[in-house]
Every structure is written in C-alpha cells, then in structure tokens.
Amino acid sequence: xxxxxEEPKATAPPPRIGKQGDPCIMVIFGAAGDLTGRLLIPAxxxxxxxxxxxxxxxxxxxxxxQLSDExxxxxxxxxxxxxxxxxxxxxxxxxxxxxxxxxxxxxxDKGLYAKLKESLSKIDQEHxxxxxxxxxxAVAPKYFGPVVEQIAANGLMDQNDGHWRRVVIEKPFGHDxxxxxxxxxxxxxxxxxxxxxxxxxxxxxxxxQNIMAFRFANGIxxxxxxxxxxxxxxxxxxxxxxxxxxxxxxxxxxxxRDMVPxxxxxxxxxxxMEPPISFDANAVRDEQAKILHAIRARPxxxxx
Length: 304
Ligand SMILES: NC(=O)c1ccc[n+]([C@@H]2O[C@H](COP(=O)([O-])OP(=O)(O)OC[C@H]3O[C@@H](n4cnc5c(N)ncnc54)[C@H](OP(=O)(O)O)[C@@H]3O)[C@@H](O)[C@H]2O)c1
Hints:
By secondary structure, the protein is of the alpha/beta class. It has helices spanning 34-49, 69-84, 90-97, 111-127, 144-153, 177-190, 206-216, 247-253, 255-272, 281-294; strands at 24-29, 57-63, 100-104, 133-137, 165-170, 196-199.
C-alpha cells in the first residue's frame, strides 16, 4: 500500500456550547512562561475553534523576554502544536496571528505600565475591543499585588465608561491564611470584588466538571452515593507531567501547597457535598464550603 507523507489534518472543531465572549483584550502577564504556553494558549485556541471568542478579541503578552510581536506569535504557534496534540487549524491560526501582540518589560519597572496603557489603547482602536480589558496573572505570586497596584495606578482598572476591567489570579492565592487575607485586602483596595476572579484551572477539567452530572443526574449512582453504601473515598491525582523546568517554583511553593488546598480540596468537596439548590456558582460554592467546614484533621499515625 502506498505510504502517505501528508501531515495529519486538524480534527473537526468542537461544537459551540455556551455563549460567545464579549469583545475584549486579554493581557497575559508572564506570557513567556510555562502556564501560558501549556495551558492558556491551548485553551484560547480551543475557544477560538469552538467559536466562543468574540470576533473583536486580542491578546497582549507581557514578560521580561525581549520578543517582537512576530517572535511571540511563533512561540504561540509552537505551543499550539506541542500542547494541542494536532496540527494547527490554518483558519484559526491566521485569525490568531493578526491579534497576538507582545510588550517586553520588567514588572518592577513603573514605566512598563505607561507603555501598557499606550499599547492597549492602540490595540483597542485597531480591534474594536470596546475598552474591555482583563489581566491574567501568569506570574509568580510575589507579583500579584504589585502588578495589580500598578495597573490600577495607571487607571487601567477603572470601569467608568461602560466597559469592564477584570483581573484573574491563579492559585496559589497566598501561602497560608494570613497571607491569603493580606492579598485579598490589597486587591480589594484596588478593585471591586466583582472585578476579581480567583481561579483554579482544575475546575475546568472535564472529569472534574463531570462529577456533578455524574452524582446528581445519574439515577444509578445518586441513590447510593452516601455513607451507608460507600466505605471510603480515595482521591488519586495522577500527573502525566513531571517537574520539568518548574523545580524553582516547587522548591519555593511546596508540592503539597501546590495541590492540596486548591485542587484536592475542590475534588473532596465536589465528591462529598449535598446537592446545591442550583448550579449557580454561589450555590455550589456554599455547599462546597459546608464540607470544608466539616472536615476534621486527624493526627498522623506514626509507625516507628
Ligand atoms: N505552570 C503551571 O502549570 C501552573 C499551574 C497553576 C498555576 N500556576 C501559577 O502560575 C504562575 C506562573 O507560573 P509559570 O509556571 O508559568 O511560571 P514561569 O514559567 O516561571 O513563568 C513566569 C513568567 O513571568 C515572567 N517574569 C518573571 N519575572 C518577571 C519580571 N520581573 N518582569 C517581567 N516578567 C517576569 C517570566 O518572563 P521571562 O521568561 O521573560 O523572564 C515568565 O514569562 C505561578 O504563580 C504559578 O503558581 C502555574
């Protein structure tokens, strides 16, 4: 049989489930890092393929690496190729390539934020993004507060003219209760609660999202999902990716802190909570919180 040397084709786009987003610019602080390349870029690519990004959407990457727009786009292309596991859909790519921009600079340099304001205004005019901006903090936690402070000082959190401005913060949100409260207070001085999105990307994983449907909409499991029929629950977090270039991060943050207070607590609470009164975010959060309040830490039994 003749062998083909053709590249594999991109698979069919996923169905559009959900509402298309507003026109906006996504500013990624830390755009040359691991989180951006491995998770954010593939997520944006998949949203674009599913038709869920507004036609008036753009990305502005900010990081220390001295890259031009063109070099940044090449990295984005490589990230899609590497992490989406298929060849890049050329229509989506052409659209992406015209709306990805890059601003090099150091977060500690106050001059960076004046340049950011200029770049945002220019991209906004070119792409009609209605001055809606959101800032994604793909940066080390020590920068969360200082970067948002500078964004706000430059008027870039203001929502006076009918547009919105938001900030997205990945875990770790502080390294203990005190530091989490301090970060919260700092942010709330700079932005309204509704402008702050504290996120855990684990909640976007399909298996995690399926837990609720599996538990509450499944006539076989729902009646037996309780302590009378379940002896114990074991949660295994099986990672396919090793430490790779993230040794510095894990050494500083701690592996337990990286997984347990966020991802694993989410899994525990989704597995054990009572049915929420609706699937509204606050209703689900309230039921999850009840489980966390009910958990009692037991002393670890030592065998030696
Ligand atoms: N990676 C993950 O899977 C993951 C998952 C969940 C949460 N997170 C969180 O996401 C954040 C980022 O993690 P990461 O793994 O992406 O880290 P990373 O690979 O070290 O990337 C950090 C980024 O920040 C930039 N940067 C660092 N210091 C800077 C400065 N002073 N001025 C300007 N840019 C600076 C780096 O730019 P240069 O490269 O140009 O220096 C790089 O683009 C961390 O808070 C982490 O906890 C990561």
